[in-house]
Amino acid sequence: MRMKLILGALSVTSLGFSSLAASSPLVRSIGGDATPASITGVRDQFRADLGGDGISEINWDGVPDSFSVPNNLPANFFNGVKLSTPGAGFQVSANNGVAPVEFDNTNPTYSSTFGVFSSQRLFTGVGSNIVDVSFGEPGSRGLVGGFGAVFTDVDLTNSTTMEYFDAANNSLGVFAVPVGIVGSESLSFLGVSFGFGRTLISHVRITSGNTALGAGVNDGTPLGTGNVADLVAMDDFIYTGIVPEPETYAMLLAGLGLIGAISRRRKLP
C-alpha cells in the first residue's frame, strides 16, 4: 500500500497530470505582414503561456537535404511527433542552392507567394491541405498542454484552421488562423493552450488553406466551388513537453507495482 501511495503522488506532481475536464482555452493569434517581427511578440506570449521550460520547437531548418525537396519527409522523423495526412506524404522546402526554394519545385510562383518566419525552410502536406500531428513515442500515445504554428499567406477568413483533440478523440475546438495583412508572403500565428500544467491535447488537425499545393494551382486561382484558391504553407511548430496518456501511465504504474511486489516477495524468509 505504501508503494501505491508514493506512485500515485508521482503521477500528479512529477508528470504534471491534472484533471482532464475541459477548461477554457487560452488563444494567442495574429495576422502579420511579411516580416517575422510582425508576429514574434504574440508567438513569445504563447511561449510564456506554456511555462517557458520544457518547450519543444520544430523550425524545419535542421532537416537533412536527403529528407527535403525533392524527397519526402518521413512521418516519424521528429522524436515524439507523428505526422499523418490523407495525401501522399510531407515535404520540407529546400535550402537555397540545393533545389528550388519555398516549393518552387512544385510551382515557380510559390517563392513569391510564401514568406518564411525562421529562414529558410517551410513545411506542407503533399496532395492534401490536411496534416494531423499526434504525440508520443513509437508504440505509445502522449499528451501536450499547448500547440501553436506559424503559417504563411493566409488570405481567406476560416480557410486555415487547427482542431484540437483530447485523449478520447473528443474535439476541444476548431480555431481559425488569422488572415495576413499583406497580399503575399504574409505571416500568421495561432497557438492554443489549456492552462499551465494541463495536458489535454492528444493530436491536432491542421487545415492549411482551402486546397493543396500543385503544379497548376496558383494562389487566387478560381475553384469550382465559386471560391478562389488560398494556398498556405507552414513554418515553425511549438508545443509543450509530451507526457504519456493516462492509460499508458496507468500501465506503467501497474508494472512498477508488480516489480515492487515481486521484490518484496523475494525478501520474505
TrEMBL record:
- The answer to whether the entry has keyword Signal is yes
Q: What superkingdom does the record give?
A: Bacteria
Which segments constitute the Ice-binding protein C-terminal domain? Answer: 243-267
What keyword terms does UniProt attach to this protein? Signal
The signal peptide stretch is 1-21
Q: Which Pfam families match?
A: PEP-CTERM (PF07589)
Matches recorded under InterPro entries: Ice-binding_C
Q: What is the protein name for this chain?
A: PEP-CTERM protein-sorting domain-containing protein
* Organism field: Nitrosospira multiformis
